[in-house]
Specification:
Elements lengths: L3 E4 L9 H16 L3 E4 L11 H14 L22 H13 L3 E4 L3 H13 L15 H9 L5 E4 L6 E6 L3 E6 L7 E3 L7 H11 L4 E5 L6 H10 L6 E5 L2 E2 L15 H6 L4 H9 L14 H7 L10 E2 L2 H14 L2 H14 L9 H11 L8 H5 L1 H4 L7 H8 L4 H13 L6 H15 L4 H12 L7 H27 L7
Parallel strand pairs: 1-2, 8-9, 10-11
Antiparallel strand pairs: 3-4, 4-7, 5-6
């Protein structure tokens, strides 16, 4: 049978990092085996599930570029792909389990169950269902049902046995069935529980491989028992490691962005995010780290997902993202930077394409994220630029800075053409005629024009700012120097 995998999120929030990695590993396993990637929405938690969350999950997957072959909006032979639309299927499966003796109705009320649970804890016992309704006579069951008494449906745990599987990531894992109680399959309100609906759907959708986080390991023995009760072959299980924050604790909202798409708002490219997510537990050869999605679709192997916890390292994410930024051609990099800046309130659409490309080119390798453009390119986006106190203090300590700034302003005002070569020639000529090194002119000019000691190339900065802004910034800095520098009195 061809490989069929599924990503089955609960729509109770955004697509977070752990869910996105699970989706990616499923998607890649489907692509590399020419299999099918199914998207299923598990929304039986009716109190917490929302349409807004479903949309957010679908948007997150689309942002990452993970296209599902079957699922919402796409259809397929095993739909519907939303659990709340599959209640008739669960009701039929529940009847079959009860008829075969693998399930029974339980009339215990929540209050009764809670009281017994507290008694068990008081005795130092692990809380579990005591089997009170397990062996009710059929006539009593029928009578209580006929009277309309609410009943849940419980799984009849078989005689003690080992429940084991060969996990692709972790090797053999075994549980003793007696550690499980007669767990609920269908609640008294008619809604199926997670483990029950999940197995019914996986059988119906012919899922061959279940790739998910290791927080689901404890669910697996119950699910295997259900497969056996349905006389169905369990899928191959692969439980990827948990993802930790830099502090060694399980990744959560406190570690930053709550959704994958929120990283886009922080300037991360979808290509960079996909690459980084793949590396959270998987490696090709221990050396190669930069992959496009198309490359991952060729080289990913489930067997190379490791069991050790992965650490979500923001610096690593930014480094990976920077490599993808560098790989974009100039036109695409320019488009992405300018689109991002427009969302931040810096609309550059009135500028020429030549100017926009030069602006992005000038920032060069200083960009790790798209968000860095607002900082590195601030000299062209803010008027006047914010002045770094240390940069200005250093300029104040340089004798003759005001004269050089004023002379450069006059020299540049007189330029017949505004080109990079003419700007460089004029600046270096001024230094030569003044009998100083070029840096003695360029350093004060950089601070005056950008407000910083470190900035893109000075001649690119000049060209991007234009004649009027360059002149006014140089003169303003010269005047401020005369007003504030302790050296001005001796000048």
């Amino acid at each position: 049978m061809s490989v069929r995998v599924r990503f089955a999120p609960s729509p109770t929030g955004f697509l977070h990092v752990g869910g996105a990695r699970t989706a990616l590993y499923n998607y890649l396993h489907a692509r590399v085996t020419q299999g099918v990637f199914v998207l299923r929405i598990e929304d039986t938690d009716t109190e917490r599930s929302t349409d807004e969350s479903t949309r957010a999950i679908l948007d997150g997957l689309r942002w990452l570029g993970l296209k599902w072959d079957e699922g919402p909006g796409v259809g397929g032979a095993y739909g519907p792909y939303v659990q709340t639309e599959r209640r008739a299927l669960y009701a039929d499966a529940a009847r079959r389990l009860e008829d075969s003796g693998h399930a029974y109705p339980c009339f215990c009320t929540p209050a009764e169950l809670e009281a017994r649970r507290e008694q068990q804890l008081a005795r130092g016992e692990d809380p579990r269902y005591d089997g009170r309704c397990r062996d009710l006579p059929p006539a009593e069951r029928a009578r209580r049902r006929a009277s309309g008494e609410p009943a849940a449906l419980r799984f009849r745990r078989p005689a003690p046995e080992e429940v084991a599987w060969d996990d692709v990531v972790r090797g053999r894992i075994a549980f003793q069935s007696e550690v499980l109680d007669d767990f609920v399959l269908v609640r008294s309100d008619g809604w199926p529980t997670y483990n029950f609906a999940c197995v019914v759907d996986d059988i119906h959708m012919r899922i061959t491989h279940v790739v998910r986080g290791d927080d689901h390991i404890s669910n697996t023995p119950r699910q295997i028992l259900l497969y056996r009760a349905f006389a169905a072959e369990p899928p191959v299980f692969a439980h990827a490691s948990m993802i930790l924050g830099p502090d060694g604790k399980r990744l959560s909202k406190r570690h930053g962005a709550t959704s994958v798409e929120a990283f886009g708002d922080l300037g991360i490219l979808p290509e960079g995010m996909v690459n980084f997510l793949a590396l959270l537990g998987w490696a090709l050869d221990g050396k190669t780290e930069i992959f496009s999605l198309a490359e991952l679709e060729r080289v990913f192997r489930l067997e190379r997902v490791g069991p050790n916890p992965a650490v979500f390292d923001t610096q690593k994410l930014e480094w990976v993202n920077a490599q993808h930024l560098k790989q974009l051609d100039e036109a695409e990099r320019t488009r992405r930077v300018c689109d991002f800046l427009a969302r931040q309130g810096h609309d550059l659409s009135a500028r020429s394409e030549e100017w926009r490309r030069a602006f992005v080119r000038a920032m060069g390798d200083r960009l790790k994220t798209l968000a860095d453009a607002a900082d590195v390119g601030a000299f062209a986006l803010q008027d006047p630029p914010a002045m770094e106190p240390e940069a200005w203090a250093e300029l104040l300590s340089r004798p003759g800075s005001d004269a050089r700034l004023a002379a450069l302003a006059a020299r540049i005002d007189a330029l017949p053409e505004w080109t990079l070569p003419s700007l460089e020639t004029a600046t270096r000529a001024l230094a030569s005629e003044s009998g100083v090194k070029a840096g003695e002119v360029i350093t004060p000019a950089r601070v005056a024009l950008t407000g910083r000691k470190a900035a893109p190339g000075i001649f690119e900065v000049m060209w991007l700012l234009g004649r009027e802004r360059v002149g006014s910034r140089l003169r303003a800095a010269a005047e401020r120097w005369r007003a504030e520098s302790p050296l001005a009195a001796h000048h």
